[in-house]
Inverse folding.
């Protein structure tokens, strides 16, 4: 928001996903609509990047000057490890991304509705079973 942090993402796929978990909703004020980028393909510029370990298995980056959420990243070895979720709104051009999945669909507020069909949808339990890192969180 303030411009103190910039990033470059390489080899970005034109897809995005949505997370409706309570933590993402509180972090973004809505749902997290994120683009998955391999962590080694993202370069951050700026000295105002703060990091908070938001759970026992993941961290979130933010600008310490203005508070803008910058990324979500799984820190524990798992199927999700090695990727960074960047909010789609942080891209200079947020157009052209296709929403391909929604997770925690059973936690989605009833006022949220996205256009289009055919997205993969996972409940919290589906995510626990698929990724394991969510157990006990």
């Amino acid at each position: 928001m303030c411009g103190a942090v910039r990033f470059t993402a390489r080899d970005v796929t034109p897809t995005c996903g949505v997370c409706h978990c309570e933590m993402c909703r509180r972090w973004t004020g809505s749902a997290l609509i994120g683009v998955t980028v391999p962590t080694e393909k993202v370069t951050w510029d700026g000295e105002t990047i703060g990091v908070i370990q938001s759970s026992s298995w993941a961290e979130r980056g933010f600008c310490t000057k203005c508070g803008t959420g910058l990324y979500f990243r799984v820190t524990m070895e798992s199927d999700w490890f090695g990727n960074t979720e960047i909010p789609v709104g942080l891209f200079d051009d947020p157009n052209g991304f296709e929403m391909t999945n929604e997770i925690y669909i059973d936690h989605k507020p009833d006022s949220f509705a996205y256009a289009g069909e055919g997205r993969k949808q996972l409940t919290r339990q589906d995510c626990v079973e698929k990724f394991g890192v969510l157990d006990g969180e």
Notes: The beta strands are 6-9, 15-19, 32-38, 42-45, 49-55, 58-63, 69-74, 83-87, 98-103, 120-122. The longest helix spans residues 124-131.
